[in-house]
Amino acid sequence: MRLRAKYLSRHELIGLECRVVSASDAGMVGISGRVVDETRNMLVIQGERGRKMVPKKGTVFQFVVGERLLEVEGESILARPEERIKG
Question: Measured between alpha carbons, how far is 77 from 58 in angstroms, rounded to an integer?
């Protein structure tokens, strides 16, 4: 089941499992793991091959929230975490 991106904009992303489904940089597609940090413009994803900094802009992420998958355009979460959450 897919949820809408608007629900994720107020959710804490750190700790969620995530995968890059598409990106303006084709080398980023397929990166997956757990979100370990977030800035205004980047997500830091810890995968099997270490940490990767993935820009939010131009990237579509798939997050695991509970038992559901949520596909989100990075532009919709483009903000500092503390600003995005308190919205």
Answer: 11
Q: Which domain does 40 fall in, by range?
A: 5-86
CATH code, domain carrying 42:
2.30.30.210
Strands 68-73 and 32-38: unpaired
Torsion of CA 79, 81, 84, 87, to 10 degrees: -140
pLDDT value of residue 21: 97
- Which residues lie across from 37 on neighbouring strands? 44
8 A C-beta contact, residue 35 and residue 15: yes
Domain count, the chain: 1
Tokens 């695991």 label which residue?
A: 64
- Give the pLDDT band (50/70/90) at residue 67: confident
With the CA atoms of 38, 76, 7 and 67 taken in that order, what torsion angle do they form, in degrees rounded to the nearest 10?
-60
